[in-house]
Hints:
The complex is a heterodimer of chains A (326) and B (484). With 326 residues, chain A is mostly helical. Chain A contains 14 helices and 2 strands, in the order αααααααββααααααα. In chain A, strand 1 (133-134) and strand 2 (140-141) form a beta hairpin. The radius of gyration of chain A is 27 Å and the shape is elongated. Among the domains of chain B are: 27-81, no CATH class; 272-352, no CATH class; 360-482, 7 Propeller (Methylamine Dehydrogenase, Chain H), CATH 2.130.10.10. In chain B, strands 3-4-5-6 form a 4-stranded antiparallel β-sheet, with no helix packed on it. In chain B, helix 3 crosses helix 4 (67-80), helix 8 (186-208) crosses helix 9 (214-243) and helix 9 runs antiparallel to helix 11 (284-308). Chain B starts with a helix and ends with a strand. Chains A and B meet through helix 6, helix 8, helix 11, helix 12 and helix 13 of A and helix 1, helix 2, helix 3 and helix 4 of B.
Amino acid sequence: MPKESPLAPSDPFLAQYARLAGALGVEEICARWGLPLETFAEALRRSAQKRFAGAEPAAVEMETYLKSLHLEDLALACACSEGIEIAWEFFIAHFRQDLRHGASAMLRGSGRADEARAAELADSLYAELYGVRTGADGRRKSLFEYFHGRSKLSTWLRAILAQKQVDLFRTSSKTVSLEAEREEESPRELVPRSEGARTDIDPDRDKYLGRFDCALRVALASLAPRERMILAYYYVDQLTLAEIGRLLREHESTVSRQIERIRRALRERVTEALRKELPASDGRRAEPPLDPAQVKLALEYAVEDWPFDLSQALSVAVPSADLPDE
Amino acid sequence: MDSQNRDEPRTRQRKELLARRMGDAIDQLKPHGDVECPDAEIVAAYAEQALEPAESAHWEDHFASCARCRSILRVLAASVDAPLAEKEVAELGKLVSSVSAPVEVTGKSGGRARPKFIDWRMRWLAPAFGVAAALAVWFAIRPPWRGTNRGASETLVAQAPKQEMPTNPAPSELDRLSQYAPQPQHDEKAATGSSQERSFRKDALSLNAPAGTAEKRSEDSANEIGGIARNASDAADSLHENKKLSPLPDDRETLSPSSTPAMPAAPPPLPKAQAAVAPPAVPQSEAKAELSAAAPEAQQLKEKSGAARGTPLRDKQAATLQAETSAITSGAVRQLAPFESRSNARGGKPLFVLRPNQKFSSLAKSATGSIEWRAGAGGIIERSTDAGTTWTSQSSPSVQEWLAGAAVSGAVCWLAGRNGAIARTTDGEHWQLVTSPPLAAPAPGRFPDWVGVSATGALTATVTSGDQQRYTTEDGGQAWRLQP
């Protein structure tokens, strides 16, 4: 029989927490670190508040959420945030090596593997975890306060390291190459036909490429977010199937099949969009549908030379006028 | 069908290129609306697949357009599989060794210390086990001829290959064979065959026989080898005689029982009868004349093949000879096409036929003049990007002779040729066949020669036949219209 918590249910959330506390063994977890129950309850409420964005979830939903949390890690984080010494000793003993391993792996991937660097990166986190800044109330602001138990503490720590590493890399790469930064600031656009450019080309080429542009926007917008993300991993980040599989926790053969399916679907949707009339929009007049030969030619031109600007194609909602009729 | 097979890798390549172009464009994306990047907890929960489906979809939508977040996820995933560093391995080793270190025996502990001699044994036990396992495996799979104390076994370990010999040929067969060569006596032949069988079986049995004296066994082996050598030399002699080959090396005569039987010499040159058929461009009349000249020799070969019969090995050779002579006498001569290669009857190196000099019937220049195509007999197509200074061969979709060409631009060009051949390129490199106007065919499958072609684009062209009929297409050859 679950043990009743000694907390007085002064508000609905704590009352609910009191019912669950016994089943989840919260008291034992807190007692291990000498963490006050009220502090842990507050951490739980913050976690739920963040998850449900201030909305009032149903009781079942809240229970399900609380049960999904990594309560032991959350209690440890809370105890460290409170500055409890035994919790810090435990944290240093059990997480320091893991952090250094993670940092080493991250640096290895960036070609800067070095034990000293890895230790420096990992140890740089301790100051923030302990809390070098003070809040408005004069309290130390520990990074542990941002851990809400939705993941393992070790994964959360590595995610922080990853963010620091990526942001550092992006900042340093920007400062190194000004030319690259200028290129990034001006997105690629359709190359205007200018003097000295190829003049001996099919006069309808631009028309076909423009139609392909619109058709592809429509096709990409129709993909699921996960599919667009997979495409981005494969074609933008140039990841291998194995790496994508590791990210998605799927076998690389599954990833391969998914990519093939997505590409096939894209091609079908682009072809379908090209065969439909393009309605007028944004000052552009309506254009008739293309016949199969023209569709084939449009695809050929797109493959050969495609100065194409697809900025925001995946993020901007496509106007309904552009969507082909079902 | 061939053109489809040729187009298949190109189609696949184009699909890849198309998809790759899309990826390049995705790289230009801006983040979705005003959604900020998620914090470390969302990233960690997503990596652990701890987010709910709706939440996952929401953030994946962001990740699809946010290179930073994708990088973070990648780095996070990489950090999970961190291998142990050398220092850590050393530390682990110390840990292991400290666990197995001997415990000091004291009066207070009451524990039982491990005697040192046990440690000594334990230290050597693992390698000893390894050696013992290796020996056991070796004894289990060692070759049988290395065994010394094997008992007699009824199972033959090494069995001689079966020899095909008609020990009791049918009477009709005998009559037929007797027309070619006198047959040895049945009993003699049977005796020969059975003696060979017995010798092989004896050899096989000797491998399994109880260990006699090594000298006797080696003597028996030597005798068997000598017998094999004699048979081989006899076979080689007959082969030489029947085929009038170059003499075999003299060392054949000096084979000793202790030496291994010599293999026949290197493949000899073709007999004269076959050499007469080899040249591919010989007109048929001349070939037939040579055939008739070769006929007597073929007959001689036939007779010799008959004489060669009598032993299993000779029977096989005779069969081969008979097949070859029948091929000669049947007049099976075929004039080779220019691009065909043939091998000689012995399956040696193919004799490649040199291609005749190619003449280009058509030269098409682009508007700028820097890019040109030339095409001609045999379907050859070449392109120059430096106004004709250098030429690069291109894959042609047809072997028909090209008679006319029209270059619309540096990328678009049309070719027209014999037997209704029409081709087009839209990228300047890869050519596709275009369907000829069906109405132009006077008979099914027979198309006129297109002696002229003009084009204004990738889709619009007009071809002209030898009788001045003009057909125009405006959809890249899908449909044609006869011009008045």
